[in-house]
Amino acid sequence: MKRVLLLISLLMLFFTIYLTMDTYALFESNKNYDVSSDIAKFVIKVNGSEAKTEEFVVDSIAYYENEYVIENKIAPLVDGYFDIVIDAEEVEVSLRYDIEFDFSSLSIPGLVISSITELGGNTLVLTDKDTYSGVITLADMDSSTVNTVRVSISWQNDEANNEVDSSWGMVADKVISIPVNVKLTQYLGEELSVYVE
């Protein structure tokens, strides 16, 4: 009788070990599956350079013709502009761009930023001091999605500033430089809040 109980106990032990190993093998085989997924492209160019965050200094400004000033030079009563071109042709998600300007170098009295606009009709929002933000939604993207932000600059004439204007103009090859930081992120539906000073 003891032998029969011992034999039954051993059979039960082997059966339990077999079931445990079979179950473990099932778990092992299930965890080896490969999962693959296509990742949405997020390749953006700013003024022709690929970047996700781009810092640069604008030192090339296009000036409108003025009969009293030599071509491509600035002086009182001359207006000009520079563009920031955001090329999102290789982006497969909605895109938010934040453009921060450092206007502290505009030390000439009367030299002002007259406007900052999106030439494609996109809405720009002032979201922080000297920071403008915009969104390119996935619905707006196509194979030629290029957004141009134009910054217009104007040197307004003020007779009270003639001495300062003249001293600034006497410096040979003086260049206006404006540091710009462009931050590019995926747009997730957040509201662009208007900055209030």
Could you walk me through the main structural features you see in this protein, from its secondary elements to its overall organization?
This protein is an alpha+beta fold and 197 residues long. 19% of the residues lie in helices and 37% in strands. The protein is built from two helices and eleven strands. The strands form two sheets. Strands 1, 2, 4, 5, 7 and 10 form a six-stranded antiparallel beta sheet that branches. A five-stranded antiparallel beta sheet has the order 3-11-6-9-8, with no helix packed on it. The longest helix has 29 residues, at 2-30. It is rod-shaped, with a radius of gyration of 32 Å.
Write a short abstract of this structure.
By secondary structure, this protein is of the alpha+beta class.
- Report the biggest beta sheet as strand number plus sense, adding barrel if it closes: 6 strands, antiparallel
Radius of gyration: 32 Å
Number of strands: 11
Mean pLDDT: 79
Could you say which overall geometry the principal axes of the C-alpha atoms support? rod-shaped
Set down the secondary structure blueprint.
Elements: H1 2-30, E1 42-46, E2 49-50, E3 53-58, E4 62-63, E5 79-91, E6 95-101, E7 111-118, E8 125-128, E9 131-136, E10 146-155, H2 162-169, E11 178-186
Antiparallel strand pairs: 1-2, 1-5, 3-11, 4-5, 5-10, 6-9, 6-11, 7-10, 8-9
Observed structural traits:
197 residues, alpha+beta, 5-stranded antiparallel sheet, 2 helices, 11 strands, 37% strand, rod-shaped
